[in-house]
Every structure is written in structure tokens, then in C-alpha cells.
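Self-study notes.
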Amino acid sequence: MAPTTATVAEEAKVASIKTLTDAGAELNSVPSEYTYVKDPNDQADASDPEHSIPTIDFAHLTSSSPDLRSKAIEKLGKACEEWGFFQVINHGVPESLMKSMIEACHKFFQLPEEEKKEFQSRKLLEPIKCGTSFNVAIDKVRLWRDYLKVIAHPEFHSLHKPAEYSDVSLEFSKQTRQVATELLSGISESLGLEAEYIAKAMNWDRGLQILAANYYPACPQPDLAIGIPPHTDHGLVTLLIQNDMGGLEVQHNGKWVLVDCAPGAFVVNIGDQMQILTNDKYKSVWHRAVVNNRATRISIAVPHGPALETAALPIPELLGGEAPKYIGMSYEAFMELQASPAAYMMPCLDHLRVKADN
């Protein structure tokens, strides 16, 4: 994350969540530094079928049939406007590749701590970095997760261990980027724009793609800990996969919804840059990762953003006489803001929102 006064050596003293939970029977409760106070009335509702994220059929979105594609684009726009989250089926990425990617990341987290130390870094855009919690230099409560972040575009980077990670991540990053590109085109068209409008405006060919793996081991008291607290994503669109253990919750109409997606589907959400572009028409929605006491959850989020030097601004064609609600900031600066104490667990968009004249 962004540089702070803490040194890497000091941060390294903070045990990974894997090290903590490997204590086994000795860990019967959540340590005080990991205790996260939740609102007892803020529980997810998984029973109401109306509280299920929309489903987008990728085969329809890319169909040669104008009717099928038109309906899919309309459904995509509605999902972006009403939910900010949806699942994508029939996307063409082999489920075997998705499982191999999860397994490769799991093997990385299983490496001895000494072998992972070379990847510990405080630099925001370090090509390969791993760590624990969110930012141990500023965390008020430590999170029940370890992470691995690898930049896959515009330049592909890879781990040399575990051995299979490189080939699997290369293919996975290529195929997820293809899906994200088609989704971006569909989103552009859902807004009444040319298919390539957003891609061109955001310099998509040089856009940032990160493979961000999260490791959430079983927790003895899941109600007293959090994997990742409520937050929004900084990019344009994020694609996510997970193993058989769910834990993603999305805020919808003031309630938390536990996401239950189809096997092999991507969960996709709109990021902050897209909310800026659409002047709040498509919103970057609050979501969080909860933990369980049964088994380890592995998730891999793949955020896709603009080129680092590119600043998102409300698209003029979408304003319809309305004033722009946001000022510009380069994507790199926006990411630095999100990682700083000034925006710790706060909506970063508030820092860019145009203040109303008194």
C-alpha cells in the first residue's frame, strides 16, 4: 500500500493470519487486535430470492443475434444501475482454469513464511507483493486475511513459486481480460455510447489489471472478526472467483446480501472509476468479506482499471444538462489516496466529489 512511517521490518513482525491460525487447538478465540465490532442488525439476508444478484449470459452479450445481444445489453445496464454487482455465466473461461488458479494461489499461501518474505513490500504498485490485513501500518483492527497481489497488465508479472503459478496466471489473466473487455463494451453500449467509448477514454490498452488473491482461514469466532470490511473497488470493473466457501456480501437497498453464485460464474462489480464516468448513474457498491468457522476461503479478485496516468471525469454525453459531480484525479493518485490514512475505510469518491456552493 502507500508508504508510511512504518518500516518493512516492523511490518514483517506482524504475523500472517496463516501463522496465527496454524496454532491449531491453541487458537480458541479471536485475539483482541483482530476483534471487529459489527452491528447485530447488519446481518446478510440470503433467504429472499429478490436479494440475488442479477445474472448476465455472456453468450448472449457476444451473440451475433442482434435481438439476443440487445436484450443482454439492456439487462447489463439495469444490473449496473440497480445493483452494481452481477454474475456472468457462459463466459468461455474453462472452469478447470479457474480452479487451477485458485489452487496455485492456495499453494503460494501454504509456502513457509521465510519464502514469502521476499514479496513483502509497502510500495503501492510493486509488481508482486504479499502481506496480511489491509495496511498494518495504519490498521485500527487487523483483518482475518492474507493477500497476494500481482500486476498482470499492461506488463505481465509472475511468481517463480509455486512452479505452476506462472503458466496458469498468464492464461487466466489473458482470458479474464478478454471477458472484462467485452463487458466494458457492453456497459458502454448500455449507456447509449459507442462500444469502444469507455475503453478509448480510459486508455484501456494500457490499463491496469491486478490478480489479487485473498486467503481467509477458518475463524474460531467468525462473528468477532472480518475478512475485509465494507469498501468499494477503485477500478472500472472487477471480476472475482472463489473456492466452494462463500463469504462475499453486497449492500443492496440498505441491506446486506450474501452472494451465492453459480458454479464457474464470475462475480462482477462496478468500481469507483465507472461511477465517476457515469456521474453516479452506475454506482460502485459497498461490499465486504466475512469469515467462517468451517474451512478456508480463497478468493481471487481481478480489478481492471484505466491507464495509471488517466483521470476519469464524468462523460459529457451522459450529463444531459446536469453538472459534473466529480473533479479529475489520475488513477494512480486515486489508488494512492485509497491506500492512505486520509481514506482509511472511507469512501474515496467523497474526496473527488464537487462540493455544492453554499
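Second protein, same conventions, sequence then structure:
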Amino acid sequence: MPDVPAAVSRALRAAPPDQLVEAADRVVRSRLAAARTDVFLADYRITGLWPVLDPDLPDAGFLACQGVAQRCFSSQQPVLDARDDGHCRVWVPLTAWGERLGVLLVELTGPADAQTVASIGEVADELATALRAADRETDRYRRARRRERLSMAAEMQWDLLPGRSVRHHAFLLAGQLEPAYGVGGDHFDWSVDGDRLTVTVLNGTGTGMSAALLTTLTVNAMRNARRSGGGLVEQAELASDTIHYQHRGRRHVATLLLAVDTVTGRVRAVDAGSPHLLRVRGATVTPIELDRQLPLGMFAETRYDVQEFDLEPGDRLFVVSDGVYDAQPGGQEAYGERAMARSMRSTRLQPATEAVGTVMRELFAYHAEADLRDDAVVVCLDWVGVSGQGER
């Protein structure tokens, strides 16, 4: 078989950033004699997969393949769909560094053997990495992912995100923001550097542009300290001083900062009036109680202390903002009192990438599908450990 992945890689490097899908399409059609290819990208709420090559695909045609595409996206495994005309549709996940972008469809004119499926999978890996990089140079793929117009605040927040998931040999990490098209101040950030994973979750205050601007200031201050080699304390203190300098105590941001040693599972934490941190171990959901310190920016020259705890292989951590934990639609008890723990236990057999969506969907169901009254963030960390043998 011709080296299709290598040919696609060369074509992607030569193509303009807004023409990556067409470049891959030409090579795959030529080398595999494929009848058709397309790329389906997940929208901001991960509620559907939408075509790039054929954005005007009729709803009936899209719905006919939606179940197969969704199965591929959720399982992160290739799915084969044999057609009555003898064609075989091969669906493979488009994933870059653990971030699920969507799925690649290749329709072959005959059966698909294992070697061909593996080759298409390598093509998808090349294309996913290129699409991830191209987002800095073109708006085409972002337009395909949005089903309605984002508010200005949401536009800023999505541009500030590191991604929606990341995979490492020791962990799988995922996060979700809601309402996706109008989020204001809540946010999450992460970075993997050597043996350290840094995660921050912000429980923003206010709404709209003012909240987004405050979050942008906070995240960039923490990134500046982190990228200069500063630890959690330096990140928290620089962000706090920067916010206070700008707002003189009138605005502040509740934030949780975590640094996970990816070799030992030791977690160092700074709780600055933070979002809620919970651990799922087996069938038990337990809040991790940290000493809450002052939110960032409340007072000048606030100093912060680090607390520590350990993860065991198979542990799952959830971090949720107040918009999740304290939600009380229709005068019900807060979602975080009992309903949230039930939804978290129900995710035990799901990876973190699926678990964040489950908890968020249960939150919407708790609201009887009404719009959320507050921003909501769910971040989930599955700790595998260095042995890779952990089980929930």
C-alpha cells in the first residue's frame, strides 16, 4: 500500500491553513481510491459533529450518519459502516494530544482491511495536529464549530482556553464551560511541563465584558509567573497583586491552583477562596477540604500558603465552579448537595472527556433544561499513575 500518511503530511505542510481538509481529501481520494472524505468537528458544547467540506449537508444526510460519527467520537476508536452498495465508510477520531476535535470520514469503494483502517487513523492524527495549529491562522474551523454567535465575552474566554482536554501517560484531563456561547468570568487553564501538571480553575465574578476582562488579566498574570519559572505561590501572588493594582480591592477572583507531580501523584494546592474540589475513589465522592485563603486581588500584598495531598492510581478529581455547586433552580436544594455526587458516581465507567459532559448535562436537567443563571465550569482529572495500571 502506498504510504498515505506520509503523503498527507507533505500535503498538509504545503497547504494554506484554511485548505488543510481539501489537501488531505485530494491525497486520500487519489491514494486509496476513496469515493468521499469529510471532516466533522465538534461544536463548542460538544452536542453535535458538523461537516467542514460540505457545510450545507442536508439535515437528513447528517442525521443518517450522526450515530456512527458520535460513536467514533465518544469511544475514540475507529468505526466501520458497511453500505448496501458495497462501499465501506471508515470513521476515525480526530484527536491531537488528547483533545478531541471531531472525526474523519473516508468512504471506500470496497471493504476496509486492518491495514487500511490503521493508515486512515494515521492520516487522522496528522490532520488533527495540523487543524489544531491552524486555528491560530484561520477562522474557518472555528466557524464550523459554532452553532450560534458567541457573545464578545465568550469569544475572549474561548480564545484564552488551553484546549478542552489533554492526555498524558499518567493522566487524562478535560474541562467544559457553560453557557458555551455566553460565558462570562469562569475559566480554567492548564500546562504540562516535564514532570509537572499545573491546573487552575477560576470562579469569576460579574457578567459580560467586565468579567471576561478580569479573567483575562488573572489568567495572563498567572501564566506570566508560571512561564517565568514561578511556582503556585508566585503565580497566586503575582495575579493577586496585579488585580489589586488595577481594581484596588473592588474586584477579586476566587481561584484554585493545583500542581500535580506526574511521577509521584503528589498534589500541591493553593486555595484562594476557590471553586469546589472533589475526589471520586471507587464509588465514593469526597470533598477535599482545603484551608480557604483570600480570593486573588482582595487586599494588597496578600501572601499564600501551599497545602498538599496525594492521589492514588484510579482516583478522579472534579473541580466545579459555584455555578455548578450552588445552582438552586426553582428553590430546590443546591445541585452540589446530593445531585452532583450522584452524577459524578454515574461517570465511573466514562473517561474524563465524557465525564465533564455528563455532569454538565445533569446540571442542565436539574435546571429542567432552562438556561443556566450563572457561568459553570467542570474540570475532571483522571489519575492513572506512572504504572498505568490504575482502575476506578
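Instructor comment on the second fold: The domain at 4-143 is CATH 3.30.450.40 (Beta-Lactamase).
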